[in-house]
Every structure is written in C-alpha cells, then in structure tokens.
Amino acid sequence: MIDQALMNKKIAILGLGMEGVAIAEFLLQNKVADLTLLDREEEDKIISRTEGKDKEKISTLLANPGIKKNLGPKYLDNLSSYEVIFRTPGISALVPELIAARKAGTEITSQIKLFFDLCPCPIIGVTGTKGKGTTSSLIFNILKKAGKDVHIAGNIGAPAISLIPELKPDSIVILELSSFQLMDLHKSPHVAVITNLLVDHLDYHRDIEEYQNAKFSILKNQSEKDFAVLNFESTFSEEKIAGLKSKVRYFSMVSPKDALVGEYNVVLDPNGRMMEICNLSDLQVFGRHNLANIAAASLVVDALGIDSATTKKAAREFKGLPHRLEFVDTVLGVKFVNDSFATNPEPTMAAIRSFSEPIVLILGGSSKGANFDELAEEIKNNKVKKVILIGAEKDKIRQSLDKANYSDYVEASGDINDVVVESKNQTEKGDVVIFSPACASFDMFKNYKDRGKKFRNAVLQLSSGKNRVN
User: Fold this and answer.
1) Core vs surface per residue 284-303: b (16+ CB within 10 A) or e
2) Which of 65, 288, 336, 454 sits in a 20 to 30 Å window from 5, CA-based?
3) pLDDT of 337-355, one tens digit each?
4) CATH class of 4-109
5) d(Cα 291, Cα 156) in Å, to the nearest integer?
6) Is the four-CA dihedral 205, 210, 212, 218 of positive or negative sign?
7) Separation of alpha carbons 166 and 155, rounded Å
8) Which CATH superfamily groups domain 113-317?
9) What CATH number does the domain located at 326-464 have?
C-alpha cells in the first residue's frame, strides 16, 4: 500500500496526538520496521492527557516493545539522524530543529501528505479562519443524501490516514484542513474551499503573511480540472488568484456572484441558473453567518453535479456542530448557548449578531495574540447587557472594553460551574447567555471541546437545580 522505500527507512513520528497515533498505527500495519516516537512529555503525561479509545490506543502504542521512544524535554535532539519525520500539526514546520533536519537531508512529511499520496478518490478540502467545520459537515450531509460514498476526516472525525482501507475510486473524501496541516502540503484537492481569510493563530505562525501562505497551499497545486470555491469579500489578492489554474467560483455577501448571501437567504446562480437554496427562517442553526457556509457548500456540490432539491433539503435539516452556537437548555426563561469553538474575536462577534435577545456574554481564556478592540466596539454597539470575564486574557479584554467606554462587565472566579451561576445571576427572563470566549482554552481546560462539555454540564446542573442560583 505504501512505497517499499518508505518501509525500509528510519522513521520518526513527532508529536503523539491523534494524528501521530494514527500514522504510527498505519505504518505498523504496513510493516515499517524502524519507528521512533517523539514527544515533549513523558509517557505517563501522554497517557493522562488522553481519554476513551484514544487512551487505549496510545497506551498500546507506547507499550509496543518493537518501537523506540524519545520522550521528554530532549525530544527534538538529533532529528537529522532520521531519514523521514512525520510532523503532527501541533508542531510547526518552522521549528528550528526541523528546519535544520531538512537542510541535513531528512524528509519532513505528515500523515495528511501521505494521505494525499495514497488516496484513490477525489478529495474536497475545506479551510478558512472560521466556518470550515460547519461547511465540511454541510457538504458531507448533502453528498450523503445524494447517495454518494462519502467520508469526512481531518479536523473532524478520525485522522485521514485511517480512511485509506475503506476508500474506493468512486468514494469522495471531505477534509477539514487547518493552516497547521496545509503549511507544507505538496498537493491540492480536487475541490478546494476557503470559507474566509481573517487573522488567527499568530501564536503559531510567524506573521499574517506566513499564515495566509499556509492557507494558499490548498489552491496552489490545483489543475485545470479542479475547482476552487472562495469568499469574494475575504480571500487572497487578485494577483494570487489570477495565477490559479482551477475553475474559481465565488460566494458573496454583497455582489451578484455564483452564490449570493442575502440578508435572509442564499441564492445560487452558477451559469445563469438562479435558484434559492434556503431562507434563514427555515434553518435549524443560529446566525446569518451560516448562510455563507451554506453558500460555499452549495457551490461545491453543484460543481459535482448534485441537484438543488437535495441541497435544499440537506441545508434545512442541518442541525449544526457541537460547540458552535449550540443550544444547551433554557433555565427559568433564559437560553444558554455553547459557542466554545470561538477561539478568537471574529466568531464571537458573529455570535453576538446572531441573536435579537439581550445577551450576557462570557469571555476569556488563554492567549492567541488577539486584539479585542473591535470585539469591544461590537459589544458596546450591540445587545450585550453584561460581559462575564474569565481566564488569563480577562485583563486584556477589560482594557479593550474600557477603551470602548463599555463598563457593564464583571469578573468571575472559580470553576465553570461558578461562572455559569454568575452568568445566570446577571440575567432576566428572555435573555440569552452565550459562552463564546474569543480565546484559546488552555488556561483552564484541555481544549475547546473539554471547555464546551464542561459548560454544557454546568448548565444542565443549573437546569436540574444542582447549582444554586442567587
């Protein structure tokens, strides 16, 4: 299944997250003999940071006597001694030790690069600063409803490499791809989608230009037979777009392009065939920004020949993704919404615009290098009646709120249960509490999923009366 030359090389896997474990298992199944696992944490911490089936997998892998290990603070030492290194997304390709190893002749690759080499069927790649998960899931639902053998992976579901045994030439794979995965990608998908191009991950990327160049990798190797679906208002420069070989289709919030996102609907107009795909009132998800995701998904499936009736039905039945403006419960007339996936200010601003009710907004977390001034102005000029500040970034957010002359905020201490109780204490019947932190989660939680689950559980405890409301 994989190149015989790779099987006989000295290989290291750098980083033992989900992707690292998946590529290790795949290589072992393909009889790779010389394999070393590299991670900055010791074995017990690696096991303790995972849960469920992932914990079983990593425990089995670490216990395998045929695998070498270099774990702990010196895990980046002597990288040039390996012939091939599989980099996991959490470790930047710009780490000095990796750059030095590459210069010394080591091949730096990744599980996503190997997947592109081995995949026997068309790939739809979806990226963007925000909306890529929802758009990927919409495309999956539409193609599934159309009867296609469709699979979804990348940042959603299992790592892509685990799909290889299931795929056939007539299968379709949808990959949600982050800038971390794209930054050294050597091939582009048959259909490439960029939902938007904002500013993010400056705690990982060198600067905005390097972040955008990583995103551009999804397009740059496309051929004349391929398609690109882009956001007309939030994309690359005309000069970059002009150099593409693929057929480019645009969705727009203001201009009559291939798909137009109106105030309340999506109208598709590829090749002059105008049709309404959905109306905002028909949807089961919150927020006008979801219309842009539907527009992007509609252009993708239209390019693949899916009829509009199937697209309309799938869009109207779509219930959204966990931790993305996810309705949790109503407590004494107050809605609670989990938007833990909002790890920078832009999606939090979109969340604020998604509701007509008065809002109590929970903000804060760990740093991603974001500026909160624009968010503070949005809060001041919108329906936000109170802000609850939490986490390591609360002082920086407070400074932006003060700068915007917004003073209706309080700081909450304690765990997420205390925060939820405090947020309820700030509400009246008919309000909505939105947990949309605009920050990373690593000061108080394992990740955004852990954060969202704990918020959801705290709300359900409140609903059941186990948490006291003053």
Assistant:
1) ebbbbbbbbbbbbbbbbbbb
2) 65
3) 999 999 989 889 989 988 8
4) alpha beta
5) 21
6) negative
7) 19
8) Mur-like, catalytic domain (3.40.1190.10)
9) 3.90.190.20
